[in-house]
Amino acid sequence: MINKKVANITEALEGVSDNMTFMFGGFGLSGIPENAIAHLVKRNVKGLTCISNNAGVDDFGLGLLLHQKQIKKMVSSYVGENDEFERQMLSGELDVELIPQGTLAERCRAAQAGFPAIYTPAGYGTEVAEGKETREFNGKMYVLEHAFKADFAFVKAWKGDTAGNLIFKGTARNFNPVMCGAAKITVAEVEELVPVGALDPNQIHVPGIFVQRIFEGEKYEKRIEQLTVRQKA
């Protein structure tokens, strides 16, 4: 079985350069590839197009890349928690493509499966459909949406083995599985990396065929985006 393990984050990001298109797993701050983002900030790669459900918060997640003006375009669904994102978008510094959340997931899934495009009813009759092909199926109108084309997909899992098989935990599963294999190279960072055979095959969420590189991450903060606690009586 092919060993997908790389020695460190530097080796995992080999080939990354300016003006590339990246996918980032996660929803809010849950399940984001913290190590990969931190290293991209450190390397100061520029002109990035980032495909992600959201843009993190001001001081964490993709917000770190935004603060250093490393992102030129965001392709996202929900962007309401980042003031710097709002400022750059309204000032024209940042190109933004907003996509219905289900469509974002399906365009990732289409790329993963090798489909060039999908038809979806979401957005028909709105600005989302302007300039796009539409077609009627069984009396209902659909919009043609193209599969994403990305250079790297960065995902984060709870456990993985050296063959690239992944297990996600709870809601951190979110967009991570559909982004695996949806780019030319998928880099998975995991909290625990184990030998092949140590994972229960029945518990694996993503098979290693969709992953090219895997490494064990470190120092995960796992921040909570909106912490809500019960008020004192």
Name a few traits of the molecule.
alpha/beta, 19% helix, 233 residues, 6 helices, 11 strands, Glutaconate Coenzyme A-transferase
Write down the overall geometry: globular
Task: Kindly estimate the percentage of residues that lie in beta strands according to DSSP.
Answer: 25-35%
Order of helices and strands: HEHEHEHEHEEEEEHEE
Which whole number gives the mean pLDDT? Answer: 95
What's the total count of β strands? 11
Classified by CATH, the class of one domain is Alpha Beta
CATH superfamily of one domain: Glutaconate Coenzyme A-transferase
CATH architecture tag of one domain: 3-Layer(aba) Sandwich
State the helix count.
Answer: 6
Give the % helix: 10-25%
Using the CA coordinates, give the radius of gyration.
18 Å
Largest sheet: 8 strands, mixed
Measure the end-to-end span.
58 Å
**Class by helix and strand content?**
alpha/beta
Spans of 5+ residues with little confidence (pLDDT < 50)? none
CATH topology name of one domain, in short, is Glutaconate Coenzyme A-transferase
Overview of the structural elements:
The mean pLDDT is 95. The chain is 19% helix and 27% strand. It has a domain at 18-98 and 149-216: Glutaconate Coenzyme A-transferase, CATH 3.40.1080.10. With 233 residues, the chain is of the alpha/beta class. Belongs to the 3-oxoacid CoA-transferase subunit A family.
